[in-house]
Amino acid sequence: MPVLPKKKVGLISCSGEEFPEGTLARMATLRVLEHVRPNETVTLCLPLFLAGNDKERAFGRFYPTIAIDGCDKRCAARATEKYSAPPTDSIVIPEFLATHGLNAPHSCRRLDADGERAADALAQEIAARVDRILGLTHEESPDAVATEGQDSIVASCSCGSGIPVMRLKIAGKLTEVVGLPVLMEQWRDGNKPTDELFDAVKIYNAVPREMEEAYRTAVLNAYADYLK
Amino acid sequence: MSDDQRVMILPCSGIGKAYGSVGREAMYRVLEDLRPNETQTVCLSLLTLGDEQAMARVRNARVITIDGCPFKCAQVNVEHAGGRNAAVFRVFDVYRAHKELKVHSVSELGENGERMAQILAEEIAAKVDELLQTPEASTPASVVVNEIETCAEAPLVEES
Question: In the predicted model, is pLDDT for residue A163 greater than 80?
Answer without folding.
Answer: no
